[in-house]
Amino acid sequence: MDAIRVKGLSVYYRTPLGQVKVLDSVDATFEEGKTVGVVGESGSGKSTLGFAITRLLPPTGITKGSIRYYDTELLSLPAKKMREVRGTGIFMIMQDPFSSLNPVKRIKDQLMEALLVKYERRKETLDPKSGEKEILKRLSDVKLPDPDLVMLKYPHQLSGGQIQRIVIAMGLLLEPKVMIADEPTSALDVSIQAQVIALMKELQQNYGMTLIFVTHDLAVASAVSDKVLILYAGRTMEFGDVGETIKQPLHPYTQGLLKSFPSGSYKEGRLFSLKGMPPSFFDMPAGCRFNPRCPYAFDRCFKEEPGVYGVGDRLVRCFLYDKSNKS
Ligand SMILES: Nc1ncnc2c1ncn2[C@@H]1O[C@H](COP(=O)(O)OP(=O)(O)OP(=O)(O)O)[C@@H](O)[C@H]1O
Ligand SMILES: [Mg+2]
């Protein structure tokens, strides 16, 4: 069963320079209890996808298409109902974790409120003493030093790494059905990153949580995910099983991303280094938007934008896989 099904999702931002389309007709499915890694370079639209699913885009954001959460269409859901979905339904650990916290409330009160949300949804009563225990347990799970002291502080009195752990703990406390983790460990030391990721996986196993794990690092994604969604300049370039993707990346962009992969795991020798930068949304190249950086680009790639082709159970947006190639 799919927990989230995104279809034809486009997101536009209104800017002083005009409207930009930063996600272009994205299709993706997020199967219940599984992890999808959303991977792409900076600016490819990863956070925008998370904000669209949680309906937390800024007021300048415009969404088109469909996002289903089980049987519920989120894009037409009244704001009040959407608030009910957010939290224990879908929880997003933001890339900027400070924005998930209220600056004028102590950490303890905010975690207690999160816990209360979970208990209310389950129609259970929360005993403050056992609530505090549950919070301390989660704070120690995310390896936050001195949790008793930290609980009494306000967000601005804490470091980025501490805040990141608190927001992850908040996510763990809520036990959401779907967790969107947007670069959740970027402010943490490498050793702690691995522990926190392991913890998320544990929660996923214990509660059947669906995880959407956003990262620019394909190696990290491959360690946590069942499937990967490769985004480039707002377009899905490849979607499929993570093991197969690492073994045999289909899209030239994915091959380029794999170049930075830890040595030895990819041996086919077709890898090339990604040169240059993603295009500006104000100045998209004609045809395939990856063509300026693609070593395999041929005539057709400069004239037409490729559709999505199926290769086994995988999907790839590249003419190299168009069997009818009529260039
Ligand atoms: N509020 C906004 N108004 C206008 N443009 C925006 C806004 N937010 C993001 N963008 C643009 O949309 C594009 C996608 O941004 P997004 O933050 O989703 O990328 P990302 O993949 O999460 O990048 P990163 O890895 O740096 O976090 C970028 O070009 C960005 O500049
Ligand atoms: Mg981002």
Bound molecules: adenosine-5'-triphosphate, magnesium ion
Mean pLDDT, as a whole number? 91
**Largest sheet features:** 8 strands, mixed
Low-confidence stretches: none
Q: Roughly how many Å is the radius of gyration? A: 21 Å
Apparent shape: globular
* Secondary-structure element series: EEEHEEHEHHHHEHEHEEHHHEE
Helical content band: 25-40%
Tally of helical segments: 11
DSSP, total strands: 12
In which order are the strands of the major sheet placed?
6-7-8-3-9-10-12-11
Quick overview of this protein structure:
The chain is an alpha/beta fold and about 325 residues long.
Question: How would you describe what is shown here?
Answer:
With 327 residues, the protein is α/β, with parallel strands linked by helices. The protein has a domain at 103-174. It is 33% helix and 24% strand. The protein contains 11 helices and 12 strands. It has helices at residues 46-54, 79-85, 107-121, 128-141, 147-150, 160-174, 190-207, 218-224, 242-247, 252-258, 299-303; strands spanning 2-15, 18-31, 35-39, 61-69, 72-73, 90-93, 178-182, 210-215, 227-232, 235-241, 309-311, 314-316. The strands form 2 sheets. It has an 8-stranded mixed beta sheet, sandwiched between helices. Strands 2-1-4-5 form a 4-stranded antiparallel beta sheet, covered by helices on one side. A hairpin with a 2-residue loop joins strand 4 and strand 5 (72-73). Helix 3 packs across helix 4 and helix 4 crosses helix 6. The protein is globular. Bound molecules: adenosine-5'-triphosphate and magnesium ion. Residues 13, 15, 20, 22, 40, 42-48, 58, 60, 95, 216, 281 line the site of adenosine-5'-triphosphate.
